[in-house]
Write a structure and sequence with these properties.
Layout lengths: L4 E9 L4 H9 L9 E3 L6 E11 L3 H12 L5 E13 L2 E11 L1 H15 L14 E7 L10 H5 L5 E5 L1 E10 L2 E11 L6
Antiparallel strand pairs: 1-3, 1-8, 2-6, 4-5, 4-7, 5-6, 8-9
Helix pairs in contact: 2-3
Length: 193
């Protein structure tokens, strides 16, 4: 019998005040009959690495690797600032908020995570890491597209955030939405001294 697979990723939590920014930005998107799914309160996060299908038996090894990846990490000071869309502004599938601050330190953290997970079979993505927080998704197979020009041009007060830990997360999709479960949390050692 094969072992059950679960969808996993490595992430950082974001300040709860991000919902105020999302709420303000909802009014800037003109859906024109297009379904826009806004990420629910408490579900927004900064993904550092998407792992995909993972065996339940590998969770302990993943947590050990992640512990080693961050054991000498220092606090990373960031802020949530600006808006964007993937894959292109003219036909968006994802609306996101940008990240500013200690980006070099954040990128080094992702390098450390990738280096720790590669021996376990999790290959480093070839594309550059673009830190962002997804706040809405738009189905790509709809005939119409929403007007997001106001969304892209809206400014807001930067929201400070500090990274002091990372989490290994499980993602499960149900008819009522996506649910996340924390499989492991790893604090930066500098916070425990």
């Amino acid at each position: 019998m094969s072992e059950r697979l679960i969808r996993t990723f490595v992430s950082v939590s974001v300040p709860k005040e991000i919902v105020n920014i999302q709420s303000m930005l909802k009014s800037t998107v003109e859906p024109k009959g297009v379904k826009v799914r806004w990420v629910m309160n408490g579900k927004m996060h900064l993904t550092l690495k998407f792992l995909g299908n993972t065996t339940q038996g590998s969770i302990d090894n993943l947590n050990e690797a992640l512990f080693n990846a961050v054991k000498s990490a220092k606090v990373i000071n960031l802020s949530i600032s600006g808006t964007g869309a993937f894959p292109v502004k003219g036909r968006p599938n994802v609306l996101w908020l940008g990240i500013k601050g200690d980006i070099d330190e954040l990128k080094q953290l992702t390098v450390n995570i990738n280096n720790s997970l590669e021996p376990l079979g999790f290959i480093t993505e070839k594309r550059d890491f673009l830190p962002h927080v997804t706040i809405a998704r738009i189905k790509s197979n709809q005939k119409k597209i929403p007007n997001i020009s106001n969304y892209l041009n809206t400014t807001f007060t930067e929201l400070p955030m500090k990274i002091v830990k990372i989490s290994l997360m499980q993602s499960e999709s149900f008819s009522k939405g996506t649910f996340y479960t924390i499989l492991g949390t790893h604090f930066f050692r500098t916070n425990l001294e």
